[in-house]
Amino acid sequence: MSWWRNASIYQVYLRSFADGNGDGIGDIAGLRDRLQHIAGLGFDAIWLNPWYPSPLADGGYDVADYRDIEPVFGSLADAEKLIADAHELGIRIIIDLVPNHCSDQHPWFRDGLWDRFHIRDTEELPNDWKSRFGGPAWSRLADGRWYLHLYAAEQPDFNWENPVVHEEFEDILRFWLDRGVDGFRIDVADGLVKDFGKPDAEQPYSDQDGVHDIYRRWRQIVDSYDGDRILVGEMWLPDPERFARYLRPDEMHSAFNFDFLCCPWNAGELKRVVDSTLAAHEPVGAPPTWVLSNHDVTRHVTRYGREKTGFSFADRQHGAPTDFELGTRRARAAIMLTAALPGGVYVYQGEELGLWEVEDLPDELREDPVWHRSGFTDRGRDGCRVPLPWSAQDGPSWLPQPENWQDFSVAAQTDDPGSMLSLYRRVFELRRGIAGDLEWLDLGEDVLAFKRGGLTCVVNLSDEPIGLPSTPALSSVPLVDGKLPSDAAAWIS
Ligand code: GLC
Ligand code: CA
């Protein structure tokens, strides 16, 4: 079976992973030093957020040069060494490709090659489209004309009606495939094709039928290389069937399951999402994936400790009361649920340490453009991007860590059998032995229970402890009088 069909993939937000040169910003050297952390957890691959030269107006999703490395992170030679080191450890490298937009510092934009962007010469705003970060999706060039940007004003959208843009990205794919990368995570994959005749309410910049041809072409390119290299899509789409169209056999290999990420901590709703995910993926033959957190959303320890446990961009519930003990307990159960499901799993750096959303960052340190573009109403995503604590010796970092993160550092957790880190190690070690289709079991209301081959996974979301059919090989918390307590999970083999 192809590796990506059941891969465990670790997401590295490079800027906040490990700092190799002591300037407070994570970098490739730091990641190379810490690869063992990821290998030791049993991951098959790393997905790296963008590492290209960038003014970092959107954490690197504003790319100024697609064929080089941001100097703050290292050099192209460092990137090649990282790929080699990772491969030696049996870890594949997936890089982030950003085809919807670039940086306003990209040479095409700086040199005024306007046919490669969406430019309009109108008095008023060309249409009512909104930026996903707030405000209008159009800003003015120096000459008064408008350019489209679905994200920050520093991120002009490419014009995919121009064949030059297609050629450029096909060449960029080859550039990195030639350097040994094992795949691409495609940013805003549903957004490249736009229907300018329609109003914002119809989201005519998302999921237009024409976008699929682009990925069919890319699939051919990726398939023309040896090794089992992949395309992974980022699409936030409301309809699971529309979503699965991107995963047809001649398009992408897999995509992030955001329905699962957004789902509240509720047995009925989780079961519904698992079922609809499996039902949507089955006809196209693609493996589902399961994701709890990433660099755009509130960390799930925090979400699960709140009254409203689901996630929505419309309301991050920044600062809502949070019971961290409860959130942590549920996060322990959640990773056992996630890792037992069929398909791929993504883990966002720091969730293996039980890190929470840092919501008390001083506002003047916030870098996420969402904060200012929302007119200072949405505090954005900096709180999930605070650098990881490695040990008590960590120096200061570009976003300050909460003081008690020392107690959550890798060094502090590594030998503690009750730590989140130890649980993740055990979960991803045992996960290797899990195979087979999912078969639901009925163990009562508010209990999620299923079999996969020789494994039974039980997650108790009810308020009462429940009896188990036999002694588990692993449980997220100790059993109480032989029973699985509330907000806990068990694996029985
Ligand atoms: C994706 C990225 C996000 C970025 C946006 C614009 O959603 O995950 O971090 O801001 O695209 O590139
Ligand atoms: Ca650094």
From TrEMBL:
SUPFAM superfamilies linked: (Trans)glycosidases
Any one GO MF annotation of this record: alpha-amylase activity
Signal peptide location: none
Domain (Glycosyl hydrolase family 13 catalytic): residue spans on this chain: 11-385
One GO process term, biological-process aspect: oligosaccharide catabolic process
Pfam families in alphabetical order: Alpha-amylase (PF00128)
UniProt superkingdom: Bacteria
Family: Belongs to the glycosyl hydrolase 13 family.
PANTHER family: ALPHA-AMYLASE FAMILY MEMBER, NEUTRAL AND BASIC AMINO ACID TRANSPORT PROTEIN RBAT
Protein name per Swiss-Prot or TrEMBL: Alpha-glucosidase
Source species: Lentzea fradiae
